[in-house]
Amino acid sequence: MPEGPELHFASLFVNRVCSGVVFSGAVEKSEVSKRPHVPFACDAYSISAVSRGKEVRLTLTPIKSETKSKVKEEENQTPMDVVFRFGMSGSFRFTAVDELPKHAHVRFYTKEDPQRVLSFVDTRRFGSWQHNATWQKDRGPCVMSEYESFRQNVLSNLSDKAFNRPICEALLNQKYFNGIGNYLRAEILYRMKIPPFVKARTVLEGLAAKNEDTKEVKVATANTNDFDSDGKRKVETKGLDILSLCHIVPLEVISLGEKGYEPEKGNYTELEAWFQCYGVNGMNSINDHNGRNIWFQGSPGPMAPKGSNASRTKRKIQKVENDYTDTKKAAKKEHTGSVSKGTHVQEASGTVKNQKGQRGTRRQKTRLDTQTHENKKPKTSKKHISAGPHTSRAKNTRRQMEPEGNITAKRIRRSQRLSSTAAF
Fold it and tell me: Of 66, 179, 364, 377, most Cβ neighbours within 10 A?
């Protein structure tokens, strides 16, 4: 999910690609989207963007014509603000019209030939937008750009029931932590060595409402060149508290530059290399009470969901690289080629596999065991009373294969039993 730094990058992207570009016509909405239409149309207008926490605001500003021609009706359009929330997969793209992305739900067309289009792309459709809107009222100050207000907003409302919840869940409450998301909360708690399932109020009580210089923190974070042996950026947490890291850690992501998050190319290598906890091998993960996965190290804390077990985490990208090496492919091919068609291989565990490596059914396994057992037994069987023409061919075959002496002895014993029965 895009978090505060990603929406900041989105605003920078819009300002860069739209600088000096003139847009024209009506704003279009995709037919599949159920979100409201943006009622804006103008012969010439510009687009600028600004972010705040997990929101991006586009400002559509009409450009006045220098000629004294008749003013069209749409040129009376006043400036309009459109506020976007990215949901799980939102982003902005700027492409040629014939390269319009599949899930482009809001489109702004340029006034040029060939035309280009700025579009809001949302594959999963959890994103939203509102025209003639301001920042959402129930969202608190931005953890990155409004640090002092953010800190004061948290510490002056610790009596709120939101802080009765575990700290990992409180950090996702945008009323107090606007801009913090899933990967940021994991990194913040890991650096502070705070278990994720400790009551939020317990963690935050006693913190002083410090008036820190935000600009100094930004410069110090952006110019840090101190890395550990694993290539991870070191951060001195001495003298810092969890609210300070809610400001510093997102700025670290911003200091990576837009290479840390490139939705156009799907390249997240810079961001993944920066992670110290989120999705890193050896870290534990567990679902919180809202079903969101939280990564941590050590004990989860006393408020962890009952019946949940922490599991070791492995990055998906490493699984892809490690599971399909040429060595394993060659070994698998050699093993498969050694089994002839139509035969079965029995493993040490007692399971049965066919040529394709699929496990056989219980009936197939039983049949195989029975055949093996019969091959080891002597070829003897009891003589049964004939059942007429319906007697199976298998029984007749076994009788023919028995030694003559065994058949004679059986007939004698049978006649003795019949005679003793007749005496009664």
Answer: 179
